Amino acid sequence: MNDASPFLDLDPGGPRVSVRFDGTDHALPEGANLAAALLAAGVRVFRATPVSGAPRAPFCMMGACYDCLVLIDGVTRQACMTRVTDGLVVERAPGRDLHDG
């Protein structure tokens, strides 16, 4: 896990599985909350808003705000409502490109 993250990995010695987020492989805790595990791994931006392109990341962590939307197997899902499983391929949800200004 990324030591620079302000989020903690609660079980640093636990079993890990491979998850790819936006082309980068991460060894995340098996069965963990995907949003929490990605935050602990140092991922700061999960998507961009469609109108302004503002970066978004998990906010409520209980499925109410939709700021943690990601694409998993081509389906838009909430990362905070998804468990980490081996081989997940996760991409940022479509929105305005973060570099479009």
What is shown here, in short?
The protein is mainly β and 101 residues long. The protein is 7% helix and 28% strand. The strands form 2 sheets. A 5-stranded mixed β-sheet has the order 2-1-7-5-6, with helices on one face.
SSE layout and pairings?
Layout: E1 16-21, E2 24-29, H1 34-40, E3 47-48, E4 55-56, E5 69-72, E6 75-78, E7 89-92
Parallel strand pairs: 1-7
Antiparallel strand pairs: 1-2, 3-4, 5-6, 5-7
GO molecular function: iron-sulfur cluster binding; oxidoreductase activity
InterPro entries: 2Fe-2S-bd_N, 2Fe-2S_ferredoxin-like_sf
Keywords: Oxidoreductase
User: In CATH's first tier, which class applies?
Assistant: Alpha Beta
Helix content: under 10%
- Largest sheet entry: 5 strands, mixed
Radius of gyration: 13 Å
CATH fold-type name: Ubiquitin-like (UB roll)
Order of helices and strands: EEHEEEEE
Percentage of residues in strands: 25-35%
Mean pLDDT: 88
CATH architectural group: Roll
- The structural class is mainly beta
Low-pLDDT runs:
none
Separation of termini?
30 Å
How many domains? The number is: 1
Number of strands: 7
Helix segment tally: 1
The global form is: globular
Strand order of the largest sheet: 2-1-7-5-6
Keywords: Oxidoreductase
GO molecular function: iron-sulfur cluster binding; oxidoreductase activity
Organism: Rhodovulum euryhalinum
Protein name: 2Fe-2S iron-sulfur cluster protein
